Amino acid sequence: MNKKTVKDVDVKGKKVLVRCDFNVPMKDGVITDENRIIGALPTIKYLMEQGAKVVLCSHMGKPHNVFDSKLELNKKEKAKIAELPEAEQAAATEEALEKAKKDVKKLTLAPVAARLNELLGGKVTFATDVVSEDAKAKVAACKAGECVLLENLRFHKGEEKKTPEFMNALASFAEVYVNDAFGTAHRSHASTAGIVEEGLVKTAACGFLIEKELSVMADTLENPQRPFVAILGGAKVADKLNVISNRLEKCDTLVIGGGMAYTFIKAQGGKIGTSLVDEEKIDYCKEMMEKAKKLGKQLVLPVDTVAAKAFPSPIDAPIETAVFASNEIPDDMMGLDIGPKTKALFAEVVANAKSVIWNGPMGVFENPVLAEGTKAVAQALANVYGKATTIIGGGDSAAAVQVLGYADKMSHISTGGGASLELFEGKVLPGIACLNDK
Ligand code: AMP
């Protein structure tokens, strides 16, 4: 990797703004999975030990409105209210502002600050706004070896809109910029790339987390041990067009499961009942099958499927299922998971691999009855631990691996679903491109 890391820059006594990914799952104000916080610690500890004044920032969820210092409705909401009869507008505004207040409570980073403070020996303070009075005061008071965590970046509209006012304010906290949020590296927001792209901060490096993501994934993509197997699942072909095409070029075998497989099966002339299908992508699937043939690559599709009369509702409701050949699904049935023969087939492909990259579930894994295919793939990957490089590309597959207790049986679990997919597509990630070259 040719980008500077924290180890390549002088941070002693300097204000170092670190973009982290503290977008942790929370329930009723309690953090339910602190993996992302733990993952950020090596970079933060290193900077503290080097005597930096560490200013941490992150987004959390998707706030509907903008809050920095004062609540403000967003444009869309204002326009919606403006369409109402005049007599109703004041009440509607009031109601929207109440909702916004609830967002502030739900999406504050205060619980993250409290946990970080415990983990870092009481050296973390929390700024109750993003770049306003409290943030300025707390950053000014921050001593070498201490940390300030700013409030949720998306509480300020300037974060996503990259307004000059916000970027200047944020950059005033950064003599050095460090990006350690791989999960948002595919976006160009003020904190993920903007302030560096605009030249407001000159010294910019990555943290240890991004360094690891890049070295593992780039190594595997550029120089894989073969056979190199890519497994793709999830709902729609349309979402993964470039990934399918790109992986066919890079890997030896492309395995396709999940909802997206049925469009391929239909493209082969199979009967898929009421299974998910991207009608507009049937020709694309034919093209990909042709491409695989031409390149001498294997494209492996499900041979059988677990089907039901309808999609489960709610998603985890009890469901009656039956198994069919994947090209002979009855007209009134819907394929919702890979079947037993396919589980064995996919496991065999994995057993013979030297590198495996996996994105996306094999079925509607949110339902325990339909999670078996996804579990089987996770198990197959765990079985080759130590013999093959196994990479989980974030998102649902990462969650499945964690829940099943296989996390320490994988070579690498990416912290960024969207970012890792874009990396696999061969795209340049703005959050990494903006960093200083070595
Ligand atoms: P994606 O966001 O494209 O990775 O897709 C993930 C979603 O695909 C999950 O919520 C799964 O429930 C869904 N999914 C997987 N297999 C199927 C299927 N056979 N039919 C419908 N949805 C599916």
Structural commentary:
By secondary structure, the protein is of the alpha/beta class. The chain folds into three domains: 6-70 and 105-212, Phosphoglycerate kinase, N-terminal domain (Rossmann fold, 3-Layer(aba) Sandwich), CATH 3.40.50; 71-104, no CATH class; 226-387, 3-Layer(aba) Sandwich (Rossmann fold), CATH 3.40.50. It contains 17 helices and 19 strands. It has a six-stranded parallel sheet with strand order 5-6-4-1-7-8, with helices on both faces. A six-stranded parallel sheet has the order 12-10-9-17-18-19, sandwiched between helices. Strand 17, helix 14 (372-383) and strand 18 form a beta-alpha-beta unit. The chain is globular, with a radius of gyration of 24 Å. The protein starts with 14 loop residues before the first strand and ends in a 5-residue tail after the last helix. The structure holds adenosine monophosphate. Adenosine monophosphate binds at residues 234-236, 239, 258-259, 276, 335-336, 360-361, 363-364, 366, 395-396.
